[in-house]
Amino acid sequence: MSELTATVASAPAPARAAPLLRPGNSNCPGCGMSMALQIFARGIEHRRVQLVVPASCAAVMAGPFPTTSLAAPVVLSTFGAGAAVATGLARVARLNGDGTRVVCWAGDGGTYDIGMASLSAAAERDEDVLYVCYDNEIYGNTGGQRSSATPAGASTTNTPAGKLEEKKDILAILAAHRVRYAASLSIAHPQDAVRKVRRALDTSGFRFLHVLAPCPTGWKSEPALGIELVRLAVRSGLYPIVEIVEGRKLVINHEPDFSTEALELYLSLQRRFQRSGLSAERFAAAIAQNWRDLRARSGRIVPADREG
Amino acid sequence: MAGQLLSANHAAALAAALAGRANRAARGFCSGVYPITPSTECMELLCNQEIEKGEVVRVESEHSAMAVCIGAAASGARTFSTSSSNGLALMAENVVAAALLRLPVVMVAANRTLGPPWNIWADHGDTLLLRDSGWVQLYCADNQEVLDSVLCAYRLAEDRRVLLPVLVCQEGFVLSHTMTETDVPSQERVDRFLPPLELPGRLGATPRVMGGIDAPHTTEVHRAQHHEAMGRVFEVYREVQAAFERELGRRPADPVVAYRAEDAEALIVSMGTIASTVVRAVDEARARGERLGAVRVRMFRPFPADALARLFRGKRRIAVIDRNLSLGFGGVLWGEARGQAEPGAIVQGYVIGIGGGDVRPAHVAAIAADLAARTAAGAPVLLEAGT
Ligand code: SF4
């Protein structure tokens, strides 16, 4: 941090990007998606964007007609059609050479589940679309049901004893499509996140960003602890911070300390893991396996930042 | 008419390509397509057209085909899709979305019965499933009408007083795969007929949300506005007919087409290609001295209630033929048309040709005879067309 502080001290204050999410939005206090949007806005800067938001908390967030809390042009789409609506916008943007970057901002249900077909197809066609999945691991907007992003052991309204199945590996799925760029973002590591947003916005073809977005409502966690929870997920290795170029070159951007303390804290600060009583040990085995796979695929570790 | 031999599928694709090129000075053309029998060849030919400033996106489902049109239309492009049967049923969610967003998408449906059991032949059950989706619906009787209707559909859909999507319906195989001599206008003439689309409030750089959350009251207002726009379709369509005649030299058919109806003692009402068969049956009946007349409902949404009521004035016997069956009710057209007849008139519903049965003049003659023998209307009559 010292280098950064020194730079900031000697240079004029950088212009703060206008917020993408304006006051008056209807997100719950402490919503991880709200924070992700603010980080995203810093990456957008001067770029001209249009958003497609499929049915989700993000669709409700904008507020009732005719107001909008989103400082961008937006089409709210049907649940499963986000990537296809974005395709239409992106094709017309290209026909007209207007330089618009089309961004699909979707929840985990709209991405991992109902939107999977249109997402996969847009990735396969290499549409000029940046698809961002804010992953709260739950259908927050409909009251918190299991999605295929929900981790094993987490209670939801329709899996009260805790979900049995493991979370889908969405980055691996997108990498298997050989998309131009895919990365995971941490809201606890904003410099790395903003760098990735910029890179994703400035790459053409299909790009995918995954953001773990704590949902205090569904996770039964303190609204103030969202960033801390993500930091713990990163530290414990539960949420790897990586980027994958052309589906092949995997780079690990942040080395976790794999501390049991971080993992235990992550699980205990949320009440959704209480019923199943899933232990840190059980998670640790899956984490270890995941990291063996990641290391096998990655060439090197890039210490992108010292934020964690 | 110096025409080309074309199927309705190809006529529709050529019309879409002409309309697409006509928007090259504006935001261009973008179409989302997915194959399904019997509309496949329309999609295929479109994919083989050179369209200046145009794109055809080969998507993974009908649901996404309409979604691509939604995104492209929101961005101000001219859009097109085509489908049939279960494809339309899968697409339905986005069909509704396109209408409620008031996007001027144009789609051609090659009508095919819904499955299972699977059947690839025609009835109107698939597009009537979308009756209340907020689209304008036109049912065609021949291939030239399909081509002309697609061109008219754009001008109607894009008129600021309307701003609604339009569905052009043509029966699968009966029209979709039957080649007839069809006049294809030149690009210059279509350019004159279809001005570049300037969609009001298209998505640009200004922050705004298309399709944002509505409270109950605003939903009521939006529905009322949509309904009012539907009500303006007849007036705008008359202007479209005049413009089409001016630029392309022939007059597209009215929303309701009457044939020898004025002095008729009995009327036969139908939609689509059965209406052509009815015209022949009417001529044969007249030759026998029977005063039979015909009415074809070409525009089904908005429903031309006033035009029908005028034609039904003084008529005591009316047969309505439906190539669709609203299960547990009867024919859809019968349900809607009978309300326009005068009190005391016998309005009898006949359902025939479901799943593509071939409806011949003899069937129509039997219907006319049944109608003549009635002293009151009864339950809908389900007839088998056979093959
Ligand atoms: S339910 Fe969860 S994801 Fe939805 S707005 Fe609230 S905190 Fe955010």
Account of the 3D structure:
The complex is a heterodimer of chains A (308) and B (387). With 308 residues, chain A is an alpha/beta fold. Chain A has a single domain (32-298), classed as Rossmann fold (3-Layer(aba) Sandwich). Chain A has helices at residues 2-10, 32-44, 57-61, 82-95, 108-113, 116-124, 170-176, 190-202, 216-219, 226-235, 260-268, 280-297, and strands at residues 49-54, 73-77, 101-107, 129-135, 181-185, 207-212, 242-245, 249-252, 298-301. With 387 residues, chain B is an alpha/beta fold. Chain B has helices at residues 8-21, 40-47, 62-74, 85-100, 125-128, 143-158, 187-193, 216-248, 274-287, 305-312, 332-337, 361-373; strands at residues 4-6, 29-33, 54-58, 78-83, 106-111, 136-139, 166-171, 180-182, 208-210, 256-259, 266-270, 292-297, 299-301, 317-322, 346-351, 381-382. Chain B has a seven-stranded mixed sheet. A six-stranded mixed sheet of chain B has the order 10-12-11-14-15-16, sandwiched between helices. In chain B, helix 1 (8-21) packs parallel to helix 2, helix 7 packs across helix 8 and helix 9 (274-287) crosses helix 12 (361-373). Chain B starts with a strand and ends in a 5-residue tail after the last strand. The model of chain B has no long low-confidence stretch (mean pLDDT 97). Classes of the chains: A alpha/beta (308), B alpha/beta (387). The interface between A and B is large, with 42 and 46 residues. Strand 2 (73-77) of chain A pairs parallel with strand 9 (208-210) of chain B, so a sheet runs across the interface. The complex binds iron/sulfur cluster. Iron/sulfur cluster is lined by residues 27-28, 31, 33, 57, 136, 140-141, 215-218 of chain A. Chain A: This is 2-ketoisovalerate ferredoxin oxidoreductase subunit beta.
